[in-house]
Specification:
The complex is a heterodimer of chains A (309) and B (188).
Chain A: H1 4-31, H2 33-72, H3 74-108, E1 118-127, E2 135-139, E3 151-153, E4 158-165, E5 169-174, E6 181-186, E7 192-196, E8 204-206, E9 219-222, E10 233-241, E11 244-249, E12 258-263
Antiparallel strand pairs in A: 1-2, 1-12, 2-5, 3-4, 3-12, 4-5, 6-7, 6-9, 7-8, 9-10, 10-11
Helix pairs in contact in A: 1-2
Chain B: H1 20-30, H2 32-43, H3 53-71, H4 78-90, H5 98-112, H6 114-120, H7 122-148, H8 155-180
Helix pairs in contact in B: 2-3, 2-4, 3-4, 3-5, 3-8, 4-5, 5-7, 7-8
Classes of the chains: A alpha+beta (309), B mainly alpha (188).
Chain lengths: 309, 188
């Protein structure tokens, strides 16, 4: 047993010691953030079934509320659905016709078909942002092949990119996070820009050409770069203030449920040599070993590099 | 306000016999504040979609540590604060270590000033707590900026501080009731 004096000393020393440990954790977080996030991801993996259990009553209540709301106004809902169905049938016919035309055109152009990306579907385990970031954790099950940098989409459009991968869970950094920078193409003005998240609902557009300003309402798609393929729908341009274009995302970033994570593979395409550029051949260290052919001339050395001998 | 000793009406000569069940009951009652922090941290990390969930995690932990550190330090020792801070750190994704450090600092302040705070009254205690909640939120914001190498908007930090200050009175009411009843080891 410790003496009373020793216990008093220990009681006084424990708080400074714990504060030192906390400072150590802060420094570790600044230097080796992935190590700390790995531990957090493991804890989330462990808690994933409990999270499902916790939100289950809320999900059921939402389903009942939706059913109740639908049941109170059945006639109006039926009429709205009939109209929507009619419009969807029209768009289905248009889509089938366009797909056939697209196929014919690709055939005549000898279009090289792109590889079909692998994807995995997961449910959002928890909103993982905190006050200063926008991220979600997805439960993708065991044995997944998700890698860092894979692209996450919901039913409507681009959601973000995978930043951490755990055994069952992956973390997706959303497009409106402050650290997110995604190269995009503007569909109508054909300009390129960078979509930069700023922790608000609508990420900003920056670095667009000054002679091609983004047009209000035009579509924004991804530009093919790195693991991000070209042409993924992102959203539409909106001017929140003069000279401040933002992207209104297609994806519903506030209410995420089912998310798909696509693996488009690495961009290992190598650009060919620039036309007209001649590759410079490196000269060997000792290009000529034998005697020069014009050694009969007076005052010339027999071998190169032997001048002045 | 300071309740380091047993409740006055219970004289040692008439205290109930110490059994295993009573010892267990007493330790659970004493651990109630720490369990409250851990349970709320885990619960608030679930995807309920409630606005300000992450900020509430921080706010509840700060309020609980502040109240129990000056009100009944036996129920909130430094090691328990450290463990609670670690649990909050694990179940949140903020800059690592900031919540833990803030909790330990606010524990140190409340524990050191507990006699003075008990004389000051609720409003003055709330005001001092508010100052430390703002400092802790500012510290967290500064670390995020340092990590991102950019000047981020301080609005989320201000919201967190406001939420922490705002929930303090209602949590204090709960804790004052708990200190007399379910979190009172002398009632075991």
């Amino acid at each position: 047993m410790l003496s009373i004096h020793a216990r008093q000393v220990l009681a006084k020393a424990i708080l400074p010691l714990l504060i030192l440990l906390a400072v150590g954790l802060v420094l570790l977080g600044l230097v080796r953030r992935p190590a700390v996030d790995g531990v957090r991801l493991m804890a989330t993996d462990f808690m994933a079934p409990a999270y499902h259990g916790l939100v289950w009553p809320q999900e059921r209540a939402m389903v009942w509320l939706t059913d109740l709301r639908g049941a109170t106004d059945l006639a109006k809902e039926n009429s709205r659905l009939r109209d929507e169905n009619r419009a969807l049938r029209h768009w289905y016919d248009v889509a089938v016709a366009l797909a056939a035309e697209n196929g014919r055109l690709k055939n005549s152009l000898h279009w090289i078909p792109q590889t079909v990306p692998q994807y995995v579907t997961g449910r959002v385990t928890r909103d993982d942002g905190g006050p200063y970031s926008r991220a979600v954790l997805l439960d993708v099950g065991s044995g997944h092949q998700v890698r860092i940098g894979d692209v996450a989409l919901d039913a409507a459009g681009l959601l973000g990119r995978v930043t951490e991968v755990g055994p069952h869970t992956v973390r997706v950094l959303m497009i409106n996070d402050d650290a997110s920078r995604i190269p995009v193409t503007l569909a109508s003005s054909h300009g390129d820009a960078i979509m930069a998240g700023d922790d608000t609902a609508a990420p900003r557009l920056i670095f667009y050409p000054q002679d091609h300003h983004p047009v209000e309402g035009e579509r924004v798609e991804t530009r093919g770069q790195s693991t991000m393929p070209a042409g993924l729908p992102v959203g539409t341009v909106h001017y929140s203030a003069p000279n401040r274009p933002v992207v209104v995302p297609d994806a519903d970033l506030d209410r995420l449920d089912i998310v798909r994570v696509f693996d488009y593979g690495d961009d290992d395409s190598q650009a060919p040599d620039a036309p007209g550029r001649v590759r410079v051949k490196k000269l060997p260290q000792n290009p000529l070993t034998g005697p020069l052919p014009f050694s009969w001339l007076p005052n010339l050395p027999d071998m190169p590099g032997r001048g002045g001998q | 306000m300071v309740a380091e000793n047993s409740t006055p009406h219970l004289h040692s000569a008439v205290e109930p016999k110490q059994t295993f069940r009573r010892a267990l009951d007493m330790s659970i009652r004493a651990a109630m504040p720490s369990l409250f922090i851990m349970f709320s941290a885990i619960l608030l990390s679930a995807p309920f979609g409630i606005p300000g969930q992450a900020q509430l995690q921080f706010g509840i932990a700060m309020c609980t540590v502040w109240f129990w550190a000056h009100s009944r330090p036996r129920s909130m020792p430094a090691l328990a604060v450290f463990l609670c801070g670690l649990v909050v750190e694990i179940f949140s994704f903020g800059p690592p270590g900031t919540v833990l450090l803030s909790l330990l600092v606010i524990y140190g302040v409340a524990h050191h000033w507990r006699y003075g705070l008990s004389r000051l009254g609720f409003l003055m205690g709330w005001l001092i707590f508010s100052i430390f909640a703002i400092i802790a939120s500012f510290f967290q914001w500064a670390l995020v900026c340092l990590h991102a190498v950019a000047l981020l908007s301080p609005a989320p930090g201000l919201f967190q501080a406001a939420l922490t200050i705002g929930i303090y009175p209602s949590l204090t009411a709960l804790f004052v009731w708990g200190r007399r009843t379910f979190a009172n080891p002398d009632q075991a």
